[in-house]
Amino acid sequence: MTGFAVDPWRLSWQGADLDHLDRAESAFALANGHLGLRGSLDEGEPVGLPGTYLNGFYEEHALPYAEAGYGYPEAGQTVVNVTDGKIIRLLVEDEPLDMRYGQTLEHRRTLDFRTGILSRETDWESPTGKRVRVRSQRLVSFTQRAIAAIRYEVEPLPDERGTKRVQLVVQSDLLANEPIESHTRDPRVALALKSPLAGEFHWSENTRAVLVHQTRESGLRMAAAMDHELEANEGLRTEIACEDDLARLTAAVDVEIGEVLRLTKYIGYGWSSTRSAPALRAQVEAALAGARQTGWDGLVAEQREYLDDFWEVADVEIDGDEELQQALRLGLFHILQAGARGESRAIPGKGLTGPGYDGHAFWDTETFVLPVLTYTVPDAARDALGWRHSTIDLAKERARVLGKAGAAFPWRSINGQECSAYWPAGTAAFHVSADIADAVARYHAATQDADFDRAQGTELLVETARLWASLGHHDPHDGFRIDGITGPDEYTAVVDNNIYTNLMAQKNLDEAADACDRNPDVAEQLGVSTTEVTAWRDAAAKMRVPYDELLGVHPQAEGFTEHEEWDFEGTPDDHYPLLLNYPYFDLYRKQVVKQADLVLALHLRGDAFTLDQKARDFAYYEARTVRDSSLSAGTQSVVAAECGHMDLAYAYLAEAALTDLYDLHSNVRNGLHMASLAGAWQAVVAGLGGMRDHGGELTFAPRLPDALERVSFRMCFRGSRIQVEIARDTATYRLIAGDPVRTAHHGEAITIDTDLTLAIPAAPDYPTPTPPAGREPRRRSKAGSTPPS
Amino acid sequence: MTGFAVDPWRLSWQGADLDHLDRAESAFALANGHLGLRGSLDEGEPVGLPGTYLNGFYEEHALPYAEAGYGYPEAGQTVVNVTDGKIIRLLVEDEPLDMRYGQTLEHRRTLDFRTGILSRETDWESPTGKRVRVRSQRLVSFTQRAIAAIRYEVEPLPDERGTKRVQLVVQSDLLANEPIESHTRDPRVALALKSPLAGEFHWSENTRAVLVHQTRESGLRMAAAMDHELEANEGLRTEIACEDDLARLTAAVDVEIGEVLRLTKYIGYGWSSTRSAPALRAQVEAALAGARQTGWDGLVAEQREYLDDFWEVADVEIDGDEELQQALRLGLFHILQAGARGESRAIPGKGLTGPGYDGHAFWDTETFVLPVLTYTVPDAARDALGWRHSTIDLAKERARVLGKAGAAFPWRSINGQECSAYWPAGTAAFHVSADIADAVARYHAATQDADFDRAQGTELLVETARLWASLGHHDPHDGFRIDGITGPDEYTAVVDNNIYTNLMAQKNLDEAADACDRNPDVAEQLGVSTTEVTAWRDAAAKMRVPYDELLGVHPQAEGFTEHEEWDFEGTPDDHYPLLLNYPYFDLYRKQVVKQADLVLALHLRGDAFTLDQKARDFAYYEARTVRDSSLSAGTQSVVAAECGHMDLAYAYLAEAALTDLYDLHSNVRNGLHMASLAGAWQAVVAGLGGMRDHGGELTFAPRLPDALERVSFRMCFRGSRIQVEIARDTATYRLIAGDPVRTAHHGEAITIDTDLTLAIPAAPDYPTPTPPAGREPRRRSKAGSTPPS
């Protein structure tokens, strides 16, 4: 059981179930890419893990090394839980509403993917027998990025003693430096910061308050402000007060049974590394004024309109698996929330849903999340790439420190500086730079956005190509090699000629050359010579791709297929994830794969392999991939589908989509896995839909698994919106808006201008591969009524 | 200029030269393997780096990780500068003798390799014009391992004012927790501990005092005690006092010009992890009683006798290079000091001459130092291997944590627990276990010590063989592989089939099988089955040794010869050592070698290569080896000599021997490089002498470089003592004591029973290889009058 009710357009949780608050807080998180609120209860406690985040707002801390080395990053960054503005406490005749006490008669929370509102209904009886109904609605505005708003209603309910009226006191807070406890050694969990915010300014008057704080080490400054509208019968008394870490509006009133006390709270946030406290205060008060001008109903209407447009271009429909339907829409909603209004900031691995991975952004943003955004909300993809571009000087400096040319983008970061303290899995994973280039090329091909191409894209491609040209070398033995780096699979590190990296670098080099051909003046500004372009083309042409002739498969990197096999039979279930139970040295030297690596190359550089090779390679790696990473199932689904293993593709699709709802990695407390949610979209669109974009050409090869009756997805391409509908034997292509779209159906060129229904050819027939013992896709019933094994 | 005067049997330093005190302190360090005193001035200040060490006595500290991992060691160990007992301060008419003030008229310090005594003569004039002559002699007893002794004499000298008598006050201290300053980020330097010793007991009476301390974290306990004999004219007043960190005998007397105040100080040390303070106090007082019973003259006589015996079996004579002659004897003296009385403790990388590498022992003890001891003081080699054996349970536990069978000995440690915080250059360097096995096999072959073989040797061989059997695997492609480990070269890490490691593991497996054949009952106790022995033999037989057919050389590990070349031309001189100026990732992925790795295999497993292969491989690696490690020159010398490059062999021999006297690695402040000193011996004996011991057979192939006129060395083998004397065209073998020795001269079997003079065949004629630009052997004139470039 996920604990969540199945519904195609909503996620809801019924009942108090206080032991799973942290899971619900992540799933119910609201965000707009700039501001994120975890789905905590209005009253602040009980709470799993409190969290309010401003994208890009972090604290700095020293990275300790028992044995330091040249070029090791010295400063780490951790996302800060900023001033909490969503707290609304209630006293019912002096009894605080706290669901750990008294009796919860009814409790339901619902996140609606079409309205973007998290609503809550609670009927609660206090320890002394007073009953109230609390209804709240919360939103983080997509249209006004600094704004969150809450409508909070309390209605006294009749009780057995015949109470007529109940005294209610509502306290609405801004609270800074909430205490957070952490007792884990899991390296994936965020550092717990103690009171990271130093109070700088506080002010309150009437129904409005402002707190300004600054982080102690990174010196970033933030402001939070709140304003309120109150509706109640006569006799309402309010007061407001503030101090360094707390601002509080208190409203007290006696309310008759059946009447309602209604509070509307507007919360505004802003932060800056340069602006002064007065400037930030002015900024958040202006944001509040705008929100009050729009009003609650206006904010709700804007939200709906924004989401209607999103679903028109992005919706995925699944007939035959309601739970999967729900999970896919939840995933799309959260990806939108992560990227919609990030603007000049990164999209972190957990979006703004939790502090996992310290709030850092990784390569999976470009590789998994940006394809979704590129084909649904391309402006958000552009903004995310714009963030990378804004950090290019840091990436060039990092390359310089490492003795390389061009730009070496960080493995993990908030502000663009490398924060990875373990170089074999950080610095050495240079593929992040090729992944960024790949996202740039994809965005350009899908939008033909010439402004971006000239202002940012070409420079990103050129500087990353320069990195590869200086990282690799022509070897007298055979071709252009890239040695001593780490590919996507985190259970292998510091290897030669990782095929994924080499093929992505190959594409990066060619794309950079193409971009320079398109924009010769930009190339000249960047100091690119003909000789340099020729060298890129030459390195790309000679890129080494090792092959194991004996086994007839591609080794993930040189020597991989000669390494010892992992003893899967001898590995107990509770020893996963392996990284917490086996040393890196042993993981690295054996044929055990944490996440798709060669298989990811089969997807993203599928143009470099024949179908027979893909089928053999997929089967080989399928037997050795444990999916201790949430980045894997979606990719495995995509390649399984291409090889005709439709049931396996479906199983991995479901696992990717349900990773967080089932908490398969036991860490959803720290936030949702954006890349896994995006991987589920890939599993539908690139897997079942067979969508590929090699060389900027859009193609499809749709096919259904037995378990599903119909799958439909939508996307945009070069300004047009299309829908692809997959039935058992046919696929229908539909133009929703814009110009006709040229594409292909199973290798046959087509143009989508009106509805076009085409037969689906028989699937390729390769033997179904077998995952390692105990690491099969998580089983579940279609309806989601049985928990995964 | 080294600063040291050239003399065949002494090292002396003339003049004050206070800027180089730390170098002299290391070179003048006295030790017996149990107790070590750096060669600081008697009066304690000025001082380069104070240091008094007890072998095995360490403090523990947490190892921090910004990103932790399974199996990472949590506790580090650092050698403690224990209570300093060698301080004797002098007040001359209330002016403290301090060579930074007043005027030093004469100053000379001399370490005599035959007496084992460090002497000092200083004529000093105080700021107010009083003159004194201070003579001190210091020894750390080889025969009474807990004891150091100092004879200290002060003689007032005539001054210009006609002074008749001078008031002298001598303070003799035991001083704990001396302050040590450290401001370096060099990872090779020891952690600076602040006040590691907590006072537990202090006592003084008459001329005797005892201090007992305990370390704060590791909980080890130590005691230091002193007693004194005073000789002076009438009027001598003494008093003694003590507190937690200080005990002080004060002696005051007026001394006539030409008369002498003589103080003899006996210092006793003891430490234990289990014994109580009273027990330790009793132990050091007993040691003092013994020393006083022997008396100063007796200690001096015992020391001389011990050293006479040592030089009879160990002396190396060089005709034609006085500086080299001196350096080789200094090296032998220090190796003896490091290992003589270590008994159940390790021989640290710096011996007991300084705190470098935190006082840890590494593989170089077994690979470089123990061969010297095996062939000169075999009991010391046995004791050092006994230390390894005493830690075998820790090594087995470490193997278990790493998921391996057998015993995985630590990369660096004081007490046997792994202290390496950077696994690619620590844990992964499994060859340390094969190096220990190699040392066991060498000791056994050279001594036929059956007791050791049964009680310790076989178990060490068996448990290390088990490690290799579980680390490697039979691969369907080709043979038995050992993947993902790190060989000796620290500029390459985590590689497959490092040839050095594979060949040493091969020998380890065969030696274990041989030992089980020799001692079937021991094998049975260790649970060794016939199947297991067969598996060892099989793995050894199929051990993979990669070869580059295109280049016709052995790659150091799989793929090495395909890697990018290092840009030596573009590397400025001040960018060495490279590890302080380039990231590991880039060093690891290129063809740059810190220290002999494949070349070390050419020496230690020379039986696995033809001479042609050796010549080609040596030339290839010679062009890529930068010698940023002090472990390299000796080995390069050995293999150069075998390949007939006698001048190069001589140059590397000189570099190895003079590494510390010239401070070529700019860190002799932290202690002498025992393995480099031992490498110089290897360069003479295995290089010029061509001594090999493959398969336990002793063979020679002597040959002189042009620059030398005659070289002679001595060694013991199976209880016999022999001398090998190399002239230009002939070599003479001489039996000094014991039974005739069967050996070979340039491949011809001989028996040394009487003097045997044989012709030296012509050297092989291969082209002389070239080291990387700027990394040629350090040049110097033969007489040492010119500094190295």
In short:
Two copies of one chain form a homodimer. Chain A is of the alpha+beta class.
Describe, in plain words, how this protein is organized in 3D.
Helices cover 30% and strands 24% of the residues of chain A. In chain A, helix 4 runs parallel beside helix 7 (431-447) and helix 13 crosses helix 15 (633-642). In chain A, strands 1-2-10-11-12-13-20-17-16-15 form a ten-stranded antiparallel β-sheet. A five-stranded antiparallel β-sheet of chain A has the order 9-8-14-19-18, with no helix packed on it. A five-stranded antiparallel β-sheet of chain A has the order 21-26-27-28-31. The first copy, chain A, has 789 residues and is α+β, with helices and mostly antiparallel strands. Chains A and B meet through helix 12 of A and helix 12 of B.
Continuous helix count of chain A: 17
| Multimerization status | homodimer
> Strand count, sense and closure of the main sheet of chain A?
10 strands, antiparallel
Instruction: State Rg of chain A.
Output: 27 Å
How many runs of DSSP E, i.e. beta strands of chain A?
31
| Residues in β-strands, percent of chain A | 15-25%
Largest interface here, residues on each chain?
Answer: A-B, 53 and 53 residues
* pLDDT averaged residue by residue of chain A: 95
Strand order across the biggest sheet of chain A? 1-2-10-11-12-13-20-17-16-15
Structural class of chain A: alpha+beta
Task: List unreliable stretches of 5+ residues of chain A.
Answer: 783-789
Q: Which descriptor suits the 3D outline of chain A?
A: globular
The end-to-end distance of chain A, rounded to whole angstroms, is 11 Å
Indicate the percent of residues in helices of chain A: 25-40%
